[in-house]
Amino acid sequence: MAWVLLLLAGAFEIGWALGLKQTAGFTRLVPSLLTAGSMVVSLGLLGLALRTLPLGTAYAIWTGIGTVGTVIAGIVIHGEPANALRLGCVALIVTGIVGLKLVSSP
């Protein structure tokens, strides 16, 4: 269950990272409220996952999910570049996430 909570926390991290762009520096009310809400949910789920998972592993995976998801969303939604070097770096992050999951208990 902790891994599911961690995956959900990572998904909400992607949501708030994307939401930051929509807030226009927190000058737009609705996007700002949604972004802040996503931040709270993400951190709350991370905190629940940390009841069972090792801190370093959970935090690295949480930020990795957020990073990879945000990069992919930036490419798909915002038309950011998707060159081979950039995608290779994302693949390295994914490799690290998978590796940490494989060597971690619970």
UniProtKB/TrEMBL annotation:
It is found in: Cell membrane. It is a multi-pass membrane protein. The chain crosses the membrane at residues 29-50, 57-78, 84-103. SUPFAM superfamilies: Multidrug resistance efflux transporter EmrE. Keywords: Cell membrane, Membrane, Transmembrane, Transmembrane helix, Transport. It holds the Pfam family Multi_Drug_Res. Belongs to the drug/metabolite transporter (DMT) superfamily. Small multidrug resistance (SMR) (TC 2.A.7.1) family. Gdx/SugE subfamily. This is Guanidinium exporter.
